[in-house]
Known about the structure:
By secondary structure, this protein is an alpha+beta fold. 65% of the residues lie in helices and 10% in strands. It has helices at 2-34, 40-51, 58-77, 83-102, 113-133, 141-151, 156-174, 177-201, 214-224, 252-265; strands at residues 204-211, 230-235, 242-250, 270-276. Strands 2-3-1-4 form a 4-stranded antiparallel beta sheet. The two termini are 22 Å apart.
Amino acid sequence: MHNNSSKNWIKEYALITAGVLLVVIGVYFFKFPNNFSIGGVTGIAMLLSKITDGSISSGTIVLVLNTILLIIGYIVLGKSFGNRTIYGSLLMSLSIQVLEIIIPLDGPLTKEPTLELAFAVILPSIGAAILFNIGASTGGTDVIAMLLKKYTSIDIGRSLLISDFLLTAATFLVFDIQTGLFSILGLFLKSTLVDSVVENLNLNKYFTIVSENHKPICDFITKNLNRSATVLDAKGAYLNHDKKVIITVMNRAQAVTLRKFIKENDPDAFIFISNTSEIIGRGFRQV
């Protein structure tokens, strides 16, 4: 039991590290050099850095803001604040600081702002989706969301989207029209991409199998795929034959194996397969 707990802990923090590093790469190498302000603490940092004529680096501002928010969050929210958020926030802030020291950038990596916007949105979105999927985050505006959730009845998602939009709109005033337009485009892409990545990370296959010979299929599901299933009684409307309906859910690799097995062993079975990403129960997500 202790070994399993340790393995889960290591796996969890390895995923958090990977997610944070994807965010950091997207932010430092593509977002900061192009001044793409797509909301959040990094967006505030870029605006403040520009207002101070670069006398304070964006990385330093991110570190200061995240540290302040972490302290407030820990004092107000206590244990519910979560070690994963603290770890993710500090790792992101310190990683950006280290990159500013060892790989200083004077400008964008390429002369293709559209290409750089794609990486500025895609990499952080994938990283954020990985973190969100395991209940972690990089802190920042997520801490504000936690505080709002505790003390107000404000719709958190909507309030954060509005705040991100206002920060992005400020890009027009602080930088130029082209940067502002790219930032607005990046915000819209980010808002849809994170949800899409989370759904794909959790994508499973939902099977409804109608068969007159259900036993071999159920045995294969439980013994070979190490999954379970629910069996219902049914009757065919056309021939009035007794049948069984097998309901089961599994990952994509297992789904291919099961479909091949049914095709070879019960070619007369009817199979209905659909995608699902919200499964709550033993073997999947817990409530």
